[in-house]
Amino acid sequence: MSQNTRSKSSHVLWLTLMILVIIWSFVICYRSEILGNKGFFQRVKDHSAAQGDEVQSEPEKNKDTIPPVVSASDFVIMVGDSVSYKSYISVSDNEDAAPIIEVSNSDVDLDEPGAYTVRYTVTDHAGNSTVVDVTMTVKGKDEYEMDLYLSEQSQSVLGKILEDDMNDMQKAYAIYRYVKKNIGYSGSSDKSNYKIAAVDGFKQRRGDCFTYFAVSKVLLDAAGIQNVDVVKLRLSKNRPRHYWSLINVGTGWYHFDSTRFASQANLFMVTDEELKNWDNKHYKNAHNFSSDGLPERSTKSIQKMINYSSAKLKAGD
Fold first, then answer.
1. Is residue 61 one of the residues assigned to a domain?
2. What is each CA distance from 137 to 74, 113, 243, in whole angstroms?
3. Which residues contact 3 (CB under 8 A, 6 or more apart)?
4. Are residues 184 and 253 in the same domain?
């Protein structure tokens, strides 16, 4: 081979190597750039996706902010009894089927008659709480049993004489007629406590004006009818006292005297004037009283609504 030929071959080989180096360098740079950019783009994509997740994620479920509903009322026990405090309340909640009930009764003495405050704190699983205070009355054995007897008697009587569709005036009139008809006048009673007189009235079916007043009061209370005690002013020590009530059935305060007088006495929901007129005709100053501490009485007569002979009462007139 000639020298010229060898020189030409070397030149071609060198040129080829240079081209291969250039191509390889280009491939390396291109690959590096593409991969690097891909990583950058991937990071941008990942960041954008993260932001998108925050914006597009489902909203947090509404938090429960409604506290439990607690129904509780005052209650009475007998001295020395044990107490299941949670049996005196009912609880419901919109989310929690079994809210936690805490009872605070640190001041209660079950061996000492008196009125005590019991606090119930009811908390659901979301932390919402309701606090309710009730009064627990501890009564001595005699008082407790007497109240229980009167409650049983009054519910029994009212169950017989009242109807579901009666208004308060009709209920009061039914009570007035029951007491007047079922209690006989004997001229004496234990006046130390109206409950004692009421027990005697229910058991013995007789007594004096205090007995009529006491039995009426127990029945009026049980029927949920407002009533206030009235006592006759004694003009002298030798004159006996007299007892009756004021009642309010939503039309104002009126006198209510269910005593069975010797003379015919129709004294259901009478005004001051009507009561005074009856006294002037039958028993002078029988209902002499002081207005101090008493509610103002209505002056509107409702006697035309009543037919005493047939026990009829027009409701709502």
1. no
2. 8, 7, 28
3. none
4. yes
- 131 and 146 together in one domain: no
pLDDT at 261 > cutoff 50: yes
Least Cα distance to 210 among 234, 183, 233, 236 occurs for 183
Q: Write down the pLDDT at residue 29.
A: 55
Phi, psi of 131 (to 5 degrees): -115, 130
- The residue among 248 and 38 whose pLDDT is bigger is 248
Pair (153, 114) in one structural domain: no
Instruction: Taking residues 223-252, report their average pLDDT.
Output: 89
Average pLDDT over residues 149-176: 95
Cα separation, 247 vs 227, in Å, equals 4
- Paired tokens of 102: 């805490």
Considering 117, 139, 161, which residue would you say is the last residue of a domain? 139
Strand partners, 149: none
CB burial of 76-114 (b: ≥16 within 10 Å; e: otherwise) equals ebbbeeebebeebbebebeebeebeeeeeeeebebeeee
Query: Which pLDDT score is estimated for 41?
Result: 44
Residue ranges making up the domain that contains 153: 142-313
- 209 shares a domain with 112: no
**Average pLDDT estimate for 292-297:** 96
**Positive/negative CA dihedral, 46, 47, 51, 54:** positive
In a domain, 290, yes or no: yes
Whether 134 and 175 share a structural domain: no
Asked if residue 265 and residue 206 are part of one domain, the reply reads yes
Check whether residue 271 and residue 181 sit in a common domain: yes
Determine the Cα angle at 190 with ends 189 and 193, to 5°.
130
